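Quick illustration, no need to memorize.
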Amino acid sequence: MAGRRKDKAAGGTAQGTGGRSKRGRARGQATARRARRKAGLEAFFWVPEDGAKRVGAPPAEASAGAEFLAFWLAGERYALPIDALREIVRLPAVTEVPRTPPHVLGVATLRGEVLPILDLRPRLGLAEAEPTSKARVLVVRSEEGPAGLLVEAVEEVVRVEGAVELEAPPAVLGHRRELLQGLLRAGDRILAVLDPERALAIEGPSGGKA
């Protein structure tokens, strides 16, 4: 499964760290400083020169209410708490690691840092498909360290005013409930909110890659 994605990037180009000049990094840092001076949600995400979309601490004006990042997996909407995100990047070149669970695509290098790249669709029982140009990797924080989650597309930041009450996942979801914090109603939509710690766990279904 993961073999066909080895050393591939969405849209046919890899977003590795090689070849970035000091001048390019300086431009990216300047862009970050300008973005962080802005107010509202625009300060949440900034786009440096290498195409990464970084998530930082929200400004005081945007601190009211909980926020979640909504994204797509196999045609279904999922979400993560915004404070669990470190950044959003294009799918980088991924190197397969033998004898890992099916949901572990391999590892990738992001600005000198080696991260495991996970595809939660096998664990969620969802259909798999080749990544498109809309595919992104969510770099998520956890107690065990950061890891990247492959998603088919990023949708939007959903803000919920006031207290947030997540509904318990129904029994019909089966084993999928283990990866969820609960269900979030946002207007006429229902988002399945992933638990960051459980989602980033390397242990998964039995049967590793040969």
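The chain has a mean pLDDT of 72.
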